[in-house]
Structure formats: C-alpha cells, structure tokens
Amino acid sequence: xTTPNISFEFFPPQSLDASFRLWETVxxxxxxxxxxxxxxxxxxxxxxxxTHEAVQTIHKHYDLNVAAHLxxxxxxxxxxxxxxxxxxxxxxxxxxxxxxxxxxxxxRFVPNKDGFASSLDLIEALAETGDFHIRVGAYPDPHxxxxxxxxxxxxxxxxxxxxxxxxxxxxxxxDDTFFRFRDKCEKAGIxxxxxxxxxxxxxxxxxxxFAERCGAHIPSWLDxxxxxxxxxxxxxxxxxxxxxxxxxxLIDGGVEDLHFYTLNKPALTREVAHALGITPRVKLQDVx
Length: 288
Description:
By secondary structure, this protein is an alpha/beta fold. The protein contains 11 helices and 8 strands. α9 crosses α10. The longest helix has 18 residues, at 235-252. The protein is globular, with a radius of gyration of 19 Å. The protein starts with a strand and ends with a helix.
C-alpha cells in the first residue's frame, strides 16, 4: 500500500482548557509531517480573531504550512480582504475559502450588505491577489441546500473556474461515496486535486447527529456496529479499524492525499496514521 500524503484540521480554542487541547494536538501530530494543516472558523465567524491568532502561532512556532479558513459571514469585503492581507504578510500562503455557516439562531446564510455574496465572489477576489493557494470545500453527498449530487458537482466546477486550486471534501463513511463523486467531477471537467476529508469517529452519537445536519449518508450497518462496540467497550478499536480500512480502500483506489478532521483530539488520528505506515519524522538533533 502506498503511503499517503496527510493533512489535519484544527479548530481555535475558546477557553483555557480548549487551548491546552489544541496545542497538545498540534504537538502530537506535527511530527507526522503533514503537507498542511487548516484552522477553522466558528459558525457565523464567531472565532475570527481566535482563528487568526491560532494560524499565526502554528505557522510561526511549529514549522507547519497553515491553510487558514476564511468565510463570507458577518464581514464586509474590505474586512475579509484585510484579514487575507494580514495572513499574506505573516507568510501564510494558503486559504480555505468558504461561504461559512449561518450564525446561531439563523437557518440560512444572509450576506453582509457590503460583503461577499457567496464563496465564488470570495474565491475570485483571493485569486486576483495572486497571494494564495486556494482550497475550497466539496460535498460527496448532496449538500442540505442543493438539489442533488449533480448540483454539488456543478457548484464545485464554478469554484474551480473562479480560481480554486484544490478541494477538500466533507467527511463520509464509505469509499464508494467518494469514488462516485470523484468520477462525476472528472466527467464535469474538474481537474484540481480533490482530497477526501476523513473523520475518525470519537463518539458515534455525536458524529451521527453532525452527519444528519450536513447531509452525509449514514449506513445502517454503522449503527449496528457501534451499538455492539459500545456494549463491549470497544468503541476506539472499532473506530480505528473502520477509519484505517476506509483510508486503505481510498488509497487502493488511487487517492494520494487524506485530510483528517481531528476535532483537536489527536489519539485516533495518530493511530490511524501509524496503521497507514506514517511515522514521526526524526529531527537530526534527536539522533545526534
């Protein structure tokens, strides 16, 4: 089996305890030599400043290539592009450009009257700067706001035409879900890399609820498997085995890159990476 390139997603801390968890996660996973790491925004842009601080700290102190999430929510065009400019000045050369989730209490996205109307407008503006490698989101299952999978593919094609350089998918549970999406993208003329988003299942109940909200297909066999594993106290063993198998199947199908949603909990991601043959890089001073 070919050893894949990997990347990780972190989210910015909103408390002291969460801060400790983030930096512990970064310390544990950085030695696995990810191609990049991304840092999210909270819903409604609620963690904008925290995201900015986390991106700059990780970039400066951990020698990692950071892709900063940037959204269109609750900000003017000038405010959003000012953040991008600050990233460029700090040496951050990658951005994950997203529309963003609506603020809490709202069920739909409403653009700021002076802001970007959609992710397409944001992507075009970032591409015009020439400062960034632009990554975007992709949905291998129908997005809750789209008619069907074909609509997902058409929207991704528009993002690529607007200047996106690569895409990272929402998580999914079966390899066929990704391959079906990849095949449709190829037929649509989408020629940028599409990286599968991988979510090691830390808590099945929580992941299931999240999957329902974002439209990810939930196979019935997973409910049965986790019901039995919970009864036997083997949830972590099952999660590691399932995630490793999914990644192996993707690699066997030609996938070269995997993006792990860590939820700032490194253990399962680290175990899966090790099972895939990814070992910590050794610094010269460690063997001197």
